[in-house]
Structure formats: C-alpha cells, structure tokens
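Translate structure to sequence.
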C-alpha cells in the first residue's frame, strides 16, 4: 500500500477528485484551505491581502499498482498551468487499522 499526498491550488479540486474517481479510489482525507509556497516556482498561496489564493491538500491510501497512473494524470494536469501549483508525494504505508 502507498499513500499519495497531493497539495494543489483550490481551483483544481474537482479535477483531482475526478482523477481519483477515474482510478477507482474511493477513500481520501482532504484539507480544503491550506497555505503554501513552492520551493522553486509558482505563486504563494497564503490567503492574505497580498497573496489571496489558497491551496487545498488531500491524502489517499491506494494499492501500489494505482500510483503510476494517478501520478501520470496529476502530471498532465500540472502541465496545464505551472503558476497554479500542484505537487504530489508518495509514501509507503507500513501498517494501519
């Protein structure tokens, strides 16, 4: 099992859910309003007067075979607008209840 953590501009939310749905991923936990700034590029998403936009984030746990197709679709989505921002990270899941 793997976890995929996705941080993204709020405007991508429906598209992220569509990618998960397309890949038959039902379960996730989402945080609808998070602040962030890319380490190299992109606009800050701080929710303040200077940088009013915000990010969202989501984590899901999936079978290993689902990781590559989901990441490929997320990369394609990220290519549509580099300024909006989308990052995904994968971690091993050792155990759970």
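Result:
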């Amino acid at each position: 099992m793997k976890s995929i953590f996705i941080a993204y501009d709020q405007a991508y939310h429906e598209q992220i859910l569509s990618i998960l749905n397309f890949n038959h991923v039902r379960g996730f936990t989402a945080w609808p309003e998070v602040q962030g700034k890319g380490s190299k590029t992109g606009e800050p998403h701080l929710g303040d007067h200077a940088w009013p936009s915000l990010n969202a984030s989501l984590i899901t746990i999936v079978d290993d075979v689902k990781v590559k197709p989901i990441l490929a679709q997320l990369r394609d989505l990220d290519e549509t607008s580099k300024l909006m921002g989308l990052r995904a990270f994968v971690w091993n899941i050792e155990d759970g209840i």
